[in-house]
């Protein structure tokens, strides 16, 4: 009975999260800049700002802590897309809502797919259906993939705005060096752990797990799709797995409700990592938070995982 109640609470808060208004300022970050760009996710907004500097004006479709799997574009989004010269998307099926939006805007923008050249992780067979056969879209959780993503973005900016080529190249070189140090630092941090077993809110950390040698025991939402249904037996199986495997903590995520994570952790007798410590699975956090930029977000996730599993 308690589990049913928890599931009902989760179901309603997921609906609320998906339907929430993105809010915030709805215009380009620099309307007078030579290159106007629309980005989908908050990670791509950060990458575009780093690579483009003052030459680009950016309109980010998704705001911090908004679920990218299920977004409803606003009329202002269509205007921005119509005016843009470059649209940057994550790809791998993350933005299933984007193609129709691009079509109805009538834009002439080029679309840069940031997943180009990246080896995509397969979805478990259970998570695959006609609408979700693209593989795991959370590619940015491996900094080496992030390097590819910013390289693709720099190439798209250079093609659309050749006069800015040297700016984009210089910004790219600086950032690629920062990504390399980030990767080395996280690898060293995770390497010190003896217990590397991870349980998260939804299945966002596959690339992180693969890159840094963690073991993924399970997720609360048993799918890449945050709108997927939870079953009582899935939850029970996860509690059993946590106990059997000696998992030390359950991690909730900033863009998803923490109630189920807390309840599963309590049932299994382990700690739950939530609130300001929650992991950033689907994008960045708001300005001023640990997740404000890609680099700080990745450090937050790695340090939180390392300190909670120590
Ligand atoms: Zn996700």
From TrEMBL:
UniProt-listed SUPFAM superfamilies: Helical backbone' metal receptor
Pfam families per UniProt: ZnuA (PF01297)
Keyword terms of this UniProt record: Metal-binding, Signal, Transport
InterPro entries from the UniProt entry: AdhesinB, Bact_metal-bind_prot9, Lipoprotein_PsaA-like, ZnuA-like
Gene Ontology cellular component list: cell envelope
Residue ranges of the TM segments: none
One annotated GO biological process: metal ion transport
Compartments (UniProt record): Cell envelope
Keyword field contains Endoplasmic reticulum: no
Keyword Mitochondrion in record: no
Leader sequence residues: none
GO molecular function: metal ion binding
PANTHER family recorded: HIGH-AFFINITY ZINC UPTAKE SYSTEM PROTEIN ZNUA-RELATED, METAL-BINDING PROTEIN HI_0362-RELATED
Protein name (Swiss-Prot/TrEMBL): Unannotated protein
Classification of source organism: unclassified sequences, metagenomes, ecological metagenomes
């Amino acid at each position: 009975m308690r589990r049913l109640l928890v599931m009902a609470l989760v179901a309603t808060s997921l609906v609320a999260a998906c339907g929430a208004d993105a809010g915030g300022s709805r215009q380009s970050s620099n309307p007078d800049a030579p290159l106007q760009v629309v980005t989908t996710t908050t990670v791509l907004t950060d990458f575009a700002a780093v690579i483009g500097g003052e030459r680009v004006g950016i309109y980010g479709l998704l705001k911090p802590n908004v679920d990218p799997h299920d977004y409803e574009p606003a009329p202002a989004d269509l205007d921005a897309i119509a005016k843009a010269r470059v649209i940057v998307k994550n790809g791998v099926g993350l933005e299933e809502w984007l193609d129709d939006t691009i079509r109805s805007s009538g834009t002439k923008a080029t679309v840069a797919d940031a997943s180009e050249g990246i080896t995509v992780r397969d979805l478990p067979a259970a998570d695959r259906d006609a609408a979700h056969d693209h593989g795991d879209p959370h590619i940015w959780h491996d900094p080496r993939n992030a390097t590819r993503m910013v390289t693709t973005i720099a190439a798209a900016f250079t093609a659309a705005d050749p006069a800015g080529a040297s700016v984009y190249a210089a910004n790219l070189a600086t950032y690629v060096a920062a990504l390399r140090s980030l990767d080395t630092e996280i690898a060293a941090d995770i390497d010190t752990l003896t217990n590397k077993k991870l349980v998260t809110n939804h299945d966002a950390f596959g690339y992180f797990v693969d890159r840094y040698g963690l073991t993924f025991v399970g997720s609360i939402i048993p799918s890449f799709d945050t709108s997927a249904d939870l079953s009582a037996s899935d939850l029970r199986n996860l509690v059993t797995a946590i106990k059997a495997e000696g998992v030390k903590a359950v991690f909730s995520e900033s863009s998803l409700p923490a109630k189920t994570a807390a309840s599963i952790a309590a049932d299994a007798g382990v700690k739950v990592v939530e609130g300001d410590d929650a992991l950033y699975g689907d994008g960045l956090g708001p300005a001023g938070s640990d997740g404000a930029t890609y680099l700080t977000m990745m450090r937050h996730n790695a340090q939180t995982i390392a300190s909670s599993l120590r």
